[in-house]
Description:
The complex is a heterotrimer.
Chain A: H1 2-31, H2 38-56, H3 60-81, H4 92-113, E1 129-132, E2 135-138, H5 139-161, H6 163-173, H7 175-180, H8 185-210, H9 218-232, H10 237-257, H11 262-276
Antiparallel strand pairs in A: 1-2
Helix pairs in contact in A: 1-5, 1-8, 1-9, 1-10, 2-3, 2-4, 2-8, 2-9, 3-8, 5-6, 5-8, 6-8, 9-10, 9-11, 10-11
Chain B: E1 6-15, E2 18-28, E3 33-38, H1 44-51, E4 62-64, E5 67-68, H2 74-80, E6 82-85, H3 97-103, H4 116-122, H5 124-128, H6 139-151, E7 157-161, H7 169-177, H8 179-184, E8 188-193, H9 196-202, E9 205-210, E10 213-218, H10 225-233
Parallel strand pairs in B: 3-8, 3-9, 6-7, 7-8
Antiparallel strand pairs in B: 1-2, 1-4, 4-5, 9-10
Helix pairs in contact in B: 3-6
Chain C: H1 2-28, H2 31-56, H3 65-81, H4 86-108, H5 113-131, E1 143-144, H6 156-163, H7 167-195, H8 197-207, H9 211-215, H10 219-245, E2 247-248, H11 250-253, H12 256-270, H13 277-292, H14 297-313, H15 317-326, H16 338-343
Antiparallel strand pairs in C: 1-2
Helix pairs in contact in C: 1-7, 2-7, 2-10, 2-12, 2-13, 3-4, 3-5, 3-10, 4-10, 6-7, 7-8, 7-10, 12-13, 12-14, 12-15
Amino acid sequence: MIWIDTILQGVLLGGLYxxxxxxxxLVFGIMRLVNLAHGDLIVLAAFVILIIMSSLGLGPFMxxxxxxxxxxxxxxALQTYVLNRVLGDDILPPLLVTFGLSVVIQNGLxxxxxxxxxxxxxxxxxxxxxxxxxxxxxxxxxxxxxxAVVVILALNYLFFHTALGRAFRATSDDAVTAGLMGVRxxxxxAIATGLAMVVATISALFLGIRANFDPSIGPARLLYAFxxxxxxxxxxxxxxxxxGIIIGIAQALGAAINPxxxxxxxxxxxxxxxxxxxxxxxxxxxx
Amino acid sequence: xxxxLLATHGxxxxxxxxxxxxxxDIKVEEGETIAIIGANGAGKSTLMRAITGLLPSASEAxxxxxEAIGTLPAPEILxxxxxxxxxxxxxxxxxxxxxxxxxxxxAREGNGYWTLERVFxxxxxxxxxxHHPGTALSGGxxxxxxxxxxxxxNPDVLLCDEVSLGLAPVVIKEIYGSFPQxxxxxxxxxxxxxxxxxxxKVADRVYxxxxxxxxxxGCPADLPRDAIHNAYFGVNA
Amino acid sequence: MPETLFRTMMxxxxxxxxxxxxxxxxxxxxxxxxxxxxxxxxxLVLALNWNLLAxxxxxxxxxxxxxxxxxxxxxxACVILLDVDPLWGILAGGAxxxxxxxxxxxxxxxxxxxxxxxxxxxxxxxxxxxxxxWKALGGGTxxxxxxxxxxxxxxxxxxxxxxxxxxxxxxxxxxYWLALVLALGTLAAAYVFxxxxxxxxxxxxxxxxxxxxxxxxxxxxLKAWIFLLTAAGTGVCGALLFIQITRVTPEAAFSVVDWKAxxxxxxxxxxxxxxxxxxxxxxxxxxLQRTLADYGTIYLIVLGLIGIAVMLFAHRGLWGLFADKTGxxxxxxxxxxPRSAHSS
Lengths: 287, 237, 344
């Protein structure tokens, strides 16, 4: 019975990781950009929500609604003025620029907000739990997983059933030919990063309600998210969900054996899967 | 004298240190069909790339409807009404046949003669296979998708880069069979061809290129075969 | 251009003079200066190694802190568990780093660009988490070198007598000279390698993937060797660093800021993919550190912003800018040395 509970907790944790990873997967899939600052941008979004909550006296969900367009603008500007300038065949420049951004954002937040732990308080919902047969699950963790599924459904709809999604896929296939069709790749990339930041805001909301956060936690969360994206396979959003859940279960199982092994178990699961599937579980056919 | 619809003036183009075009002058009048012929490496595709904004050129080197467009990027050229069927078709593998066509109208729908329905009327087989990936079709069908995709923006000038390359004669005939309807929609057509016979049949005027220069121009009827031969292969070939 | 040649000779002359002065620092300089410069030299070694990897071999690893930590922990294991001289621990640190690099390479080389980078990071985390379990070396809280270890190090007693200083100053001087020799050795090795036929082939590959075959170099094999050798160099440097620091914890040994962020910024600011880049970078880094050290995190923010600006506006860093402006090539890599020109 304890094992069912552990695995269930792992699945729910995986929901959070999948939420972190969904925005990353979008950007990675469209422009092959490894954004090493994504984790710190999620933390930034959490602080933006926090500021809105305290200055306007709103709850976290309402505050996130206001934070989302702000973060979209941040992502759009970041892509337009910085990242588009370094995108190309060579992965080194974008990697190093986003690494620099990661350090700047993290230390900027540290400078402004100090290293104190923060939390987005959502009231009584945090403590509520549901009894599902033999096990009890928290409402918030369940809501996080549901949100991850909703976000992925929404992104998939956007990707496969809208004109914008069509332009995303065409640009991802062949940006030069897409330009011949009147698609502006720079613009497409800016919108994609803006959307990724909206997803980052949603992740920040659930991260901040479930656990304490401080300016330094970005990179570790980013790593789990990257593991989820890579395990899932480039450009497959459902793969990203599966990847997140695998990391979550591995961490939960590791922690059940020995608390010190939680993170290690997640990393080992990543290595093990890539050992047998170097392109992830659900790679795109034409990459 | 009024300016032609599309014209290049002393157009040059480079790939790094390599100069591929040496002062090319061509003009395209409204509704005209132009053929650009020449051997491999004559600079035909480079000319297409320069006109569509894929290769940088001087601002005044390309003029369209009285506007200097030489330095504009590809999307803005398309918005002004020049679209291209690129060499090698370049369909998007992640997009279905229908989506490949629709993306052609992403930025511009123009006067609206060409719609998804119109393309399907001209090439009914595409309607049947509309949900297949574009790249799952036969070569000839893929070429029809690529042409349809370029038409979806209802261009004033349609550039076709080597549309018959690698296709069976019967398929080529089918493709060129659709040209009268394209002309009927009001678009001027520029075809880049290695197949001289095919080019002569459809074109109002012909330009022949060799090693980055225009070596001959005129109406097909006025051009003797040996003049074309010389312009194509070099004088003493 | 005789003027350029003259300036090149001038800079080389200054370089030589600087090296000579660096050698006498422990004799004439203060102990604080020795310790400062030790930090600079070790960062230079790490940056030279990372530059070879990311700038020349196209292996963009963000997990090289794994080998710093491995070197450090191996040296500690040698001293505490085997009771041998820490100097042997340095060699062992390099060897263990290189041995661990073998499975790491086998795993990561199957992954392409971005996946490679992330995988190196994950593996560095794994190494850190595993070593944090090693109870004999203090587990998660770490451990210190036994008292007197550095005093009993080979050569320290002799230095103490010769220079007439305290034994801790003597051990600082010894680690300093080792760091200097390691830095010069790494620089010389990189120079010789990059001018060799294989090294020139590697640069041809970097600049044009298609050139790989025509150059007659097996890129994967060559890159694998670079990966192993830079791992060894990084491990040696890690061991040396922690002889001087004398205390190891998983956080310090695998520090993301010290052994990853600093190293990457130094290389990027100086000029990634240029041989003198890390030297220029480490000088800029040192100056910034001295002026901004009191401002804590501001220092990292400034470093990050400069790194971003360099990547956006001057791809090949400060050295690249300088070389383009002046035409000076301090350590020219472009011209084939006569011998290999004939052999091809």
